[in-house]
């Protein structure tokens, strides 16, 4: 085969660094964007925050061919030297120095009010744990160890107790069996299983009540033991959680009444006593970090019109530092000038990318509010079907761009704070030939379940029939899917004694 030269023409999309930066900033959440801006401010000397009330010229020296000269150095003027200790006459000392000097300091700056609030000067830096001093809450293990330090124990029992506390999860239950904990000890320590169980009983007397239990039945029993002996239905409740916890979980009230020989009204009071207990005692001690949501867009109603505006307080306004920008010279090819020129270009790109992000976010949010006015007026049941393609056509962008804009972006409305993706939902056909949003169907299902007879809860088939009566054609399996997404249990688990 004779080799030949073939010329082919094609097109290839190449993303510039500026476009890549704009796309990356577009998909960041507000909190991530704030961190990105802070890193840019620390790394780029050309960027600075624009404070409120700042009046400055946004002119770019490189763009306008303006070279701002350095300010003229002022001629030094003669000033009388300030009096010092050396040139003061002995007679002038009392005249110049008053008896009481004004002190620009607070009391806490001079006198330390809390000796334990600061590390000792003779301690090493490694011993100073800042995170533990500034933590928001107390962990469950530290709470139990604090109680352990107050309990008199031998060294061996204390070691066993520490091991048991380490095996307690955040819900307050013992994750490991006593046999597994026994195998973890050195055989030379001669620790026995009965000794571990005895120490466990000591820990189960700690606060909160029910801590260190191995199952739900033991957890509830521990809490019942700490109730006053005169508590009504205490014996029946202990029998219920000890022998019939499975029947209680399956809500087989007929079997419970027959086996416990109780009437319906009596069984209801026993169950109410059990329901007053905490099945997860560790959750009231264990503290988790709060997740903050900063809205990107604010929607409010003004004179029968819905107004959309960006949350200006969430993202700081940036500008190019005019003083540093004035140092850049066009004809200068030195390393310092090249560095400042590159930093200036990056600063301009960064500010432009932020502006592009805000404009895109504003366009998308405005179209969402335009489509979902019914939701803003009447709630979830008035939510209209909406997909990414609808917004993409309205703003003239690709669906992938709309997806980036609506991910981890939040809108503050009079009805609460919602993620932008919340306003998008699939549609279900109605008997009249229209469409109904899946979000609206979920709201209707939640409303039907809240109004149902708890003695005879609505099944999925019954809910599907009620929806069909309203003109919404939904299959039973679809109702089950929507119900599970709302965190609603099946009808067999929603049954209650009235």
Question: Please, could you describe this protein's structure?
Answer:
The protein has 498 residues and is an alpha+beta fold. Among the domains are: 141-203, no CATH class; 216-284; 297-423, no CATH class; 428-493, Arc Repressor Mutant, subunit A (Orthogonal Bundle), CATH 1.10.10.60. The protein is 44% helix and 6% strand. It is built from 22 helices and eight strands. The strands form three sheets. Strands 3-2-5-6 form a four-stranded mixed beta sheet, with helices on one face. Strands 1-4 form a two-stranded antiparallel ribbon. The chain has a two-stranded antiparallel ribbon with strand order 7-8. A hairpin with a 5-residue loop joins strand 7 and strand 8 (435-437). Helix 18 crosses helix 19. The longest helix has 37 residues, at 335-371. Residues 61-94 and 107-135 have low confidence and may be disordered.
What is shown here, in short?
With 498 residues, the protein is α+β, with helices and mostly antiparallel strands. It is built from 22 helices and eight strands. The longest helix is centred in the last third of the chain and has 37 residues, at 335-371.
């Amino acid at each position: 085969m004779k080799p030949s030269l073939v010329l082919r023409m094609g097109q290839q999309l190449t993303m510039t660094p500026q476009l890549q930066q704009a796309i990356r900033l577009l998909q960041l959440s507000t909190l991530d964007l704030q961190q990105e801006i802070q890193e840019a401010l620390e790394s780029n000397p050309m960027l600075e925050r624009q404070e409120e009330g700042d009046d400055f010229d946004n002119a770019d020296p490189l763009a306008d061919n303006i070279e701002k000269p350095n300010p003229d150095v002022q001629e030094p003027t003669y000033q009388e030297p300030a009096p010092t200790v050396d040139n003061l006459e002995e007679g002038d000392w009392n005249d110049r120095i008053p008896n009481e000097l004004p002190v620009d300091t607070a009391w806490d700056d001079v006198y330390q009010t809390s000796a334990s609030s600061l590390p000792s000067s003779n301690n090493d830096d490694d011993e100073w744990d800042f995170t533990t001093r500034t933590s928001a809450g107390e962990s469950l293990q530290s709470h139990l160890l604090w109680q352990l330090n107050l309990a008199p124990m031998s060294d061996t029992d204390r070691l066993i107790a520490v091991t048991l506390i380490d095996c307690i999860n955040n819900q307050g239950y013992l994750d490991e069996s006593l046999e597994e904990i026994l195998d973890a000890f050195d055989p030379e320590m001669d620790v026995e299983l009965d000794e571990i169980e005895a120490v466990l009983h000591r820990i189960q007397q700690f606060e909160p009540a029910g801590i260190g239990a191995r199952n739900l039945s033991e957890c509830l029993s521990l809490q019942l033991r700490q109730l006053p002996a005169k508590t009504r239905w205490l014996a029946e409740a202990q029998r219920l959680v000890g022998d019939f916890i499975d029947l209680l979980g399956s809500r087989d009230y007929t079997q419970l009444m027959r086996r416990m020989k109780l009437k319906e009204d009596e069984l209801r009071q026993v169950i109410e006593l059990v329901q007053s207990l905490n099945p997860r005692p560790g959750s009231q001690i264990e503290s988790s970090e709060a997740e903050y949501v900063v809205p990107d867009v604010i929607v409010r109603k003004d004179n029968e019109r819905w107004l959309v505006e960006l949350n200006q307080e969430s993202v700081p306004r940036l500008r190019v530092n005019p003083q540093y920008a004035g140092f850049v010279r066009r004809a200068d090819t030195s390393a310092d000038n090249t560095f400042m020129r590159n930093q200036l270009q990056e600063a301009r790109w960064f500010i432009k990318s932020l502006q592009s992000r805000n404009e895109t976010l504003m366009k998308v949010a405005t179209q969402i509010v335009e489509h979902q006015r019914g939701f803003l007026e009447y709630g979830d049941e008035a939510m209209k079907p909406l997909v990414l393609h609808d917004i993409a056509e309205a703003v003239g962008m690709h669906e992938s761009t709309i997806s980036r804009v609506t991910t981890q972006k939040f809108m503050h409305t009079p009805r609460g704070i919602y993620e932008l993706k919340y306003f998008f939902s699939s549609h279900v056909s109605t008997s009249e030939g229209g469409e109904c949003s899946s979000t609206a169907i979920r709201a209707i299902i939640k409303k039907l379940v809240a109004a149902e007879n708890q003695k005879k809860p609505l099944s999925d088939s019954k809910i599907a029939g009620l929806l069909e009566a309203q003109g919404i054609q939904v299959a039973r399996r679809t109702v089950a899917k929507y119900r599970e997404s709302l965190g609603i249990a099946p009808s067999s688990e929603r049954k209650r004694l009235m």
